[in-house]
Amino acid sequence: MLETLAQAVINGLLIGGIYALVSIGVTLIFGVVKIVNFAQGEFVMIGMYITFFLATRFGIDPLVSLAVSIPVLFLVGMLVQHFLIRRVLGLGDMPQIFLTFALSLLLMNVALLLFTANYRTVHTGYSDESIHLGAFYVPVAKLIAFGLAMVFSGILWLFLHFTDLGKAMRAAAQNPEVAMLMGINPHRVFAVAFGAALALAGAAGSLLMPFYPASPMAGQVFVLMAFVAVVLGTLGNVTGALVASLMMGIAESLGIQFVGADSGLIVVFLMLLLTLAFRPSGLAGGRGR
Amino acid sequence: MRRVPRNWLWVGLLAAIVLMLPLVVTSRFAIDIFIRIALFAFIGVAWNLMGGYAKQLSLGHAAYFGLGAYTSTILEIRYGISPWLGMIAGGVVAMLASLPIGALCFRLRGPYFAIATIATAQVLMLLFLKFRDFAWGAEGTTIPNFGDAPLMMQFDEKSSYYFLALGLLALGVAITYRIEHSWMGYYLVAIGEDEDAAQAIGVNAPRVKRDIYMISAFLTALAGTFYVQYIYFIDPATAFSFNISVEAALVSIVGGIGTLWGPVVGTVLLETASALLQSWLGSSAGGVQLTIYSLILIAVILWRPSGLLGLFEDIYRRMVHARPARPKEALLDG
Residue B294: its chain A contacts at CB < 8 A? Predict the structure, then answer.
């Protein structure tokens, strides 16, 4: 019993690392650009398809294709921010919500048209490997994904705290007017923030590919998890999103283990609704909006 | 003599045309599209009461659609109660469900309100997947066919379903019209503009939001009952389909949120576009409909966020008066 519990916690923690990459992206965009990106999951999906095609056409390992998916999605992010998001900033909730929402629908359905609804998998040498630690086993592909997810999250944290651009980004998040007075160009900062968030989503896509099938709807689960994690971890808070994502991975895994295979999502949604009921400003407190 | 506003003459004329449609067009395919238009326009009208006037942008109206559908179906199959009564019961169940759901979701604003409403609809869908004994689980059930049984909301003629859907739409529009011209309507618009300011001048925002959510949920549930009676089948994926929530919001935004006729105009445009595309490309191409919908939605948001109804009104004015109404005049008229 205790072993099953510990094994479920390990599984949950590992997948929680991927949720963290997506949630950190969502919370970064929310913190800096003040937009909720409903399409974040679709960028994970794009990262997965990039990785899938590189693997099947050119035999490139998913981990190597990180070198493609990260820069491509960074660029896409800058373009999306520049040509779409910028035009609805400050226009109120409706255009802001439904622009990224429409983008999500568009990407999902274009993917459906181009690639059909079939599940696509990439099989690597380490897809079925696992390390045995005493009574537990740790799947290698998931362990690598978790490790690299933590590395990328760490790099983002260092970037935000120790580079001028990162500091400018945090300044623009705190107070855009004052940041502008200090000579920070908000549009440039917003574009980089959006790019960085999408780069994380792209990385998540590549990291998932060795053990998770790509499909047009694949991003949906991740974005829902990210929304819950971002609310739990207090909106706009990068560390909060990371911790909350790991917690949710574990909660989902326990739900699957002890309630039933299709109950993972119920547990997660109930967590969201309970959080809203009792701590609407997130577990770390702070702003409610 | 009391002057009849010219707008209402147009509405009367349009109503006459719409009522005659099944006499002129007899193709089952076409009537099916008319039914879809009337039904989704009705769902859009119900969504618009809350999402349009009060700007509480719900993406979870499928919750009430599904509750309405399941309530009437369970009452019919388990207890033999006519769906006409079941429809009302479903509306009441949805209204009651909107109370706790609203209490939770209204703690959040803007995008996070939308996300919370998505979660509630998803939780209900997942729960109904679990209710295997009581609500048939994931397999769903077909609804027994009694042939031509108007008392059980079943008809031989497709046009009867069309008139029923039109009746629902008329009900929704009438309720919206009444609310628009009451204090409630002004409160809603005030909340939609700026909730804190509305509260500051004495609008009881939580109560108004709760009330309009109940009305909106009630109407959406009626659509749910109608839909399962029309397709003779129910399962959680159909009844709580995320697409219902999406389309409810989408038709309102494309037409014009917070306007009486916006959702109707939006539905006519989107459903016609989708029907034409599907007959052109064949229904085999999955994803075509929503690709087009999302492109139209992006275009509307970027270039005409107030919706296409206003655009048509401008064009009409230009044609009739050869000049657009100046904002000042519009204010005095209103």
Answer: 102-103, 105-106, 109
Chain B segment 40-79 residues within 8 A of A by beta carbon are 55, 57, 59
B84-102 residue pLDDT tens = 999 999 999 999 999 999 9
Establish if A94 touches chain B: CB-CB under 8 angstroms. yes
C-alpha B192/C-alpha B208 separation (Å) is 11
Q: Would you call A288 and B108 a contact, using CB atoms and an 8 Å cutoff?
A: yes
* Domains of chain A in sequence order: 2-278 (1.10.3470)
Q: Output the six-digit token pair for A151.
A: 């590395």
Residue partners of A40: CB distance under 8 A and separation at least 6? A22, A25, A26, A29, A197, A198, A201, A219, A222, A223, A226
Residue of A5, A20, A8 lying closest to A228 (CA atoms): A20
Interval A250-260: pLDDT, tens: 988 888 887 77
Helix/strand/coil for B149 = strand
- Beta strands B141-142 and A136-139 are unpaired
Average of per-residue pLDDT values in chain B: 87
CA–CA separation, B103 and B117 (whole Å): 11
DSSP, residue by residue, B78-105: HH---HHHHHHHHHHHHHHHHHHHHHHH
pLDDT for res A91 = 82
Of the candidates A208, A185, A260, the residue with the CA atom closest to the CA atom of residue A50: A208
Shortest CB distance from B294 goes to which of A96, A106, A280?
Answer: A106
**How does pLDDT run across B10-21, given as a tens digit for each residue?**
878 888 888 888
Under the banding of pLDDT at 50, 70 and 90, the label for residue A6 is confident
| pLDDT of B334 | 39
Alpha-carbon distances, residue B151 vs A67, B2, B154, B291 (angstroms) = 65, 40, 7, 40
Q: Mutate which of B106, B115, B293 to disrupt the A interface (most A C-beta within 10 Å)?
A: B115
- Give the DSSP per-residue string, A87-122: GGTTS-HHHHHHHHHHHHHHHHHHHHHHH-S--B--
Does pLDDT of B265 surpass 80?
yes
Contacts of B288 in chain A (CB under 8 A): 109, 113
Quickly state the pLDDT bin for A106 (edges 50, 70, 90).
very high
- Asked if residues B236 and B129 have their Cβ atoms less than 8 Å apart, the reply is yes
Query: Mean pLDDT, chain A, as a whole number?
Result: 87
Under 8 Å between Cβ of B70 and B127: no
Instruction: Decide if B116 and A95 are in contact by the 8 Å CB cutoff.
Output: no
Please give the C-alpha separations between residue B156 and each of B73, B159, B162, B233, B295, in angstroms, as whole numbers.
Answer: 19, 9, 12, 17, 38
Q: Is B277 at the interface with chain A, CB within 8 A?
A: no
| Beta-carbon separation of A101 and B110 below 8 A | no
CA distance A103 to A127: 32
Q: Can you tell me the mean pLDDT for B142-169?
A: 87
- Tell the residue number behind the tokens 């075509």, with chain if given: B288
A81-100 pLDDT, tens digit per residue, is 999 999 998 888 888 889 99
pLDDT at A287: 43
User: Which has more confidence, A52 or B147?
Assistant: A52
